[in-house]
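Protein in question passed on here:
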Amino acid sequence: MAEFVIERTVPLPLDEAWRRVTDWPRHGRVVPFTRVTAHGRSVRARTGVGPVGFLDPMEITVWSPPGDDGEGGICRLEKRGRVVLGRAELEVRPGPGGRARVLWREEVRLRFLPSFLDGLLRIAGRYVFGRALDRLLRWE
């Protein structure tokens, strides 16, 4: 299993940072070759080009938005696909100077990828999702 954490501190209020990182269709606009849809606690990401690709169905198992009391928020997604397994967590916390600190934690396994390639998957995941997080937080 490849595990990684991406962290950003941004000049946004907690609720705005939360809104941006949990806007699922927006994920599909910033992750290459991916479309994302959501219905209730179900999130479905399809990555591919034309008929070649895979589905990454996820279930939201924790949903706790930031409160009016200044506390942070967390969303946990369990990956339940035939290809992608694991979980992701998106967390928004108070940061220095009224900024928002955003963490994206990922524990991911690709079913057909041998475990000795987890290091490469970790590097690729940090790169792809780091860029996606930057775009989610920057792009209005």
About this structure: The domain at 2-138 is CATH 3.30.530.20 (Alpha-D-Glucose-1,6-Bisphosphate; Chain A, domain 4). The two ends are 33 Å apart (CA to CA). The chain has a mean pLDDT of 93.
